[in-house]
Structure formats: C-alpha cells, structure tokens
Recover the amino acids of this structure.
C-alpha cells in the first residue's frame, strides 16, 4: 500500500515560525479538523503535544474526544456536546442554536464580520449574549473568520475594523452580564501572517503549520516547510512499444518504446483524477493514462515512487488548493513520523 511520511523537523520549524508570530506557544490553537488536514489526527496531536501546543480546534465532538488527552483546550467548530467535558468549548454559529446547548456548556460566539457563512450578525451581539446568559452557558470568547485573508485586497482590513467594533461592544456588555473577561480571536494562518503586531488572545492555524500555505507573492515570504509526503509501491512493470496506449480509454499513447510501471496509489486513496496525464512527480516522473481507483501508471522503473512531498505542487496540477489535496488522503493510508 501507499504510505505517508510526516516530517517532524519541518512541523516544528513551522510551529517555531508561528510561535514567533503569536509571541507565545500558548496562543497557538492548532486546527486539526478533517484528520488534521489529512496528516493523521493522532500523529499530529502527538507531535503537537511534544512541541508544547496546548490548544486545538476541530470540527466535531467525536474528533475532540479522540484527542482529549493531548490538549488542555479544544474548540469544536460545528457540533453539539454528547457528554460534559471540561476541556471542550463549542461554537455558536447561529443565534437560534443557543437553546440547543445544555446548561453550563462552555461556548465561544462566532460573529459574522463579512464572510456571510457562519456566525451571528454583528447587530445581534447583545441579543445573543443575553440568550447565552438566559440559557446558563459559559461564554468564554468571541471570534470571527476572514473570507479573503489570503488575497491581496482591502477586505482583510475591512473585516478587522468590523471585528474591532464587535470587541468594543462585547467588552461593554460582558461585565453587565456577569461573564468573565472574554478572549478574542480572528486569525487563520494567512491572517496571522499579515499582522505586524499580533495582539489577540489566540490564533487558529492550520495550513501554515502543515507547511502548505499559498499566498500571493506580494506578501512577506515565510519559510514554512511541507510536512507530508506520499509514497507508492510498484505493482507491476511492462515495456510498451511506440503506439501502445496506457490505462482506461487508452488516453496516453507512448511516443517511443519505454517502461511504464503501475503504482498502488489511485483516486480511491486520494490521487485526484483530474491530474491524469498531466502530473509530474518531484523526481520528474510523468504520470500516464487515466488514474484508476487503486493505482496509477508512471513512466518509471522505480520500486517505490514519491508521489508528492508538497501538496501545493500537486494542487497546481489539480487546479485546486493544497487543502483539498491533503484532505482527500484516505484514513487507511499508513502514516509514519520521520
Ligand atoms: C479551518 C479553519 C481555520 C484554519 O485555517 P487555515 O487557513 O488552515 O489556517 C481557522 N478558523 C476556522 C474557523 C476554520 O474553519
């Protein structure tokens, strides 16, 4: 079977850069949703703990329970509690969902400052905080998410201004309602990279920790290094004569006699099929013929082939983003820390 390696040095290099940006390891909340962006939830949690990361962000209650022993604080982005766990905080994404949380649940209120996906409206802040009080929930933080932090435009500034207004109003309301001092956070990886003086309570970083952030070249160059590599093993080899075609539909015709080998990594494992007949590996091995479910052919004789060691490059071939390349990698592929 194909396998994945996770480079611990590169991961720690990335966390060093992020810790410099946040000025403290304690302010890093590592985003571990979708199997830690395909890297492996437990493998990344283990390394993060070793590095000294105390906070994590996941999508669901189930993910949070799996990593409970690795972190002191876990933020769930979109789920409800199935049991009471002191470490887990839940996101309020909609004013009408407040009544669904049991009494004494720790919650963080998401405010829509412009992305218009999740979160209460800015004008609903007071009403939401009153409802949270009424429901007997423990409000710990107010946060938002950027829609264009990775793009060269004024939108990031506009959302920061909106969030500054939210902060001011929330701080005014909080003492009257008897909540403790609130924490505030708004940064994903791209947004954190743009702050000259980061002064929030926490940053939610995913893609930069995995070393696969893609930003316009006008932004400050940062030395993040890709953590994940995918390798596949040869199933079989054959010599093809000029004019013979490879794979389903015979879509690749060899121009001169050559050795084509078939390797055990296909779209069922996460090799995006759109890369068929266009993808070139980091060692310049050309993928030929349509990518199959369990395998793909390359002009190569190697026993083992490096499929990719930087999801950004694979993403270019697939005309997508590194996030999709990474989260397409299936759970059952063996992950090994190197
Ligand atoms: C996924 C996610 C992040 C992390 O974003 P990156 O670009 O990977 O750093 C942060 N915040 C929220 C709300 C998210 O859903």
């Amino acid at each position: 079977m194909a396998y994945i390696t996770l480079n611990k040095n590169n991961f720690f290099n990335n966390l060093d850069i992020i810790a410099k940006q946040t000025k403290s390891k304690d302010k890093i909340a590592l985003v571990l949703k979708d199997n830690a962006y395909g890297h492996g939830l437990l493998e990344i949690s283990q390394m993060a703990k070793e590095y000294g990361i105390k906070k994590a962000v996941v999508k669901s209650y189930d993910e949070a329970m799996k990593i409970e022993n690795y972190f002191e604080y876990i933020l769930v982005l979109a789920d409800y509690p199935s049991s009471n766990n002191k470490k887990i905080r839940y996101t309020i994404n909609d004013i009408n969902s407040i009544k669904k949380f049991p009494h004494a649940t720790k919650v963080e209120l998401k405010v829509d400052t412009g992305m218009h996906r999740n979160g209460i409206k800015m004008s609903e802040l007071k009403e939401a905080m009153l409802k949270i009080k009424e429901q007997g929930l423990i409000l710990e933080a107010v946060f938002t998410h950027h829609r264009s932090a990775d793009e060269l435009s004024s939108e990031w500034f506009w959302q920061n201004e909106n969030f500054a207004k939210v902060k001011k109003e929330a701080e005014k309301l909080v003492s009257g309602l008897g909540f403790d001092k609130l924490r505030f956070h708004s940064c994903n990886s791209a947004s954190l990279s743009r702050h000259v003086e980061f002064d929030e309570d926490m940053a939610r970083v995913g893609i930069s920790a995995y070393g696969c952030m893609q930003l316009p070249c006008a932004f400050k160059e940062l030395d993040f290094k890709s953590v994940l590599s995918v390798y596949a093993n040869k199933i079989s080899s054959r010599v093809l004569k000029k004019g013979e075609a490879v794979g389903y539909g015979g879509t690749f015709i060899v121009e001169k006699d050559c050795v084509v080998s078939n390797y055990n990594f296909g779209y069922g494992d996460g090799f995006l099929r759109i890369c068929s007949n266009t993808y070139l590996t980091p060692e310049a091995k050309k993928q030929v013929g349509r990518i199959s479910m369990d395998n793909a052919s390359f002009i190569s004789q190697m026993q083992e082939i490096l499929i990719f060691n930087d999801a950004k490059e694979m993403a270019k071939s697939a005309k997508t983003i590194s996030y999709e390349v990474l989260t397409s990698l299936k759970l059952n592929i063996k992950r090994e820390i190197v």
Notes: The two ends are 18 Å apart (CA to CA). Residues 31, 33, 77, 145, 188-190, 204-208 surround pyridoxal-5'-phosphate (CB under 6 Å).
